[in-house]
Amino acid sequence: MYLLCARKPITRSSVRFLTFDAAKQPRIRIGSTAPNFVAPSTVGDLDFYKYLGNSWGVLFSHPADFTPVCATELGEFASLKSEFDTRNVKLIGLSADDLTKHVNWVKDIQDISLGGKKFNFPILSDTKKEVAFLYDMVTEEAFRNINKGPIATIRSLFIIDPTKKVRLVMTYPPSVGRNTHEVLRVIDSLQTGDKLGVVTGVNWKKGDDVIIPPSLSDEAAKEKFGNFKKVKPYLRYASTKK
After folding, report:
1. Cβ contacts of residue 69 below 8 Å, gap of 6+?
2. With contact defined as beta carbons under 8 Å apart, do 25 and 133 qualify?
3. Which segments constitute the Thioredoxin domain (predicted)?
4. 31, 69, 110, 236: which sits with the fewest CB atoms below 10 Å from its CB?
C-alpha cells in the first residue's frame, strides 16, 4: 500500500486512501508543489522528498514493463546518469507493474543498453496507479478501465527543483520515445536562468548566448553583463562566457 500526501509531512494521521475521482485529482502544473509519496521501488520503500533531498529530480513514468519504447528510454537515462549527477539531478522511473517484473525487466535493460553494467536508479512500482493519479498522469476514463491492461497515458515526465516545485511537464504518446538530451538541455536552461536571472531562446544549449529579460533596463543589463547585442528593444542577447 502507498502512503500518499500532497503537501504535508508523511505521518499516520496524513495517510489517505485515494478514490479515483477526477474532481479530487490534483492538478499538476508548472509551479505546483510536487506531491510527496512513499511507494515501493527497486531499492525498497521510497519517500520521494527524502530521496530528492536538496537535489533536482526527474520523475518519468511508463504504463507497463517489457515495453520496447520504455526499455530504450530507461536504458538511455541510465547510461546518461553521470550527466544528471553533474547537474545535481536525481532520476526516478515509474512503471505500473509489480516489483518482480521490474527486477527481470532491469536485467533486460542492462543487456540492451548498458552492456551488462548495473542499472543505477530506482524504478517505482505503481500497480494501483496511485502515484499516477497523484501526478495527474491518467484520465478519469482510464481509471474506469484500470484493471483491463496497460494505461497508455502513463507517459509523463516531470522536472522538479530543490524547493519541490514542478518546473516542466511533458507527456508523450506511447509510440514516441523521449529525447533524453532535451531533458538535459531544459535542466541546463532552468539552472542557468535561476542563477543569472535570464531566459534562453530556441534551440539554446549550454554555452550559447542568453536572452536578457525585458524587465531589465539597458543600463542595468550593461552593468550586469557588460556589452550585449540588441536586436530589438525586447530582444537582447548576452554572453555567459567570461
Report:
1. 174, 175, 176, 177
2. yes
3. 28-192
4. 31
Domains assigned to the chain = 26-178 (3.40.30.10), 197-238 (no CATH)
Cα–Cα distance between 207 and 20 in angstroms, integer?
45
90 contacts: CB under 8 Å, gap ≥ 6: 51, 52, 53, 55, 56, 57, 58, 84, 121
Q: Which position among 4, 34, 59, 70 bears the catalytic label?
A: 70
- Whether 5 is a known active-site residue: answer no
Q: What is the pLDDT of residues 49-105, one digit of tens each?
A: 999 999 999 999 999 999 999 999 999 999 999 999 999 999 999 999 999 999 999
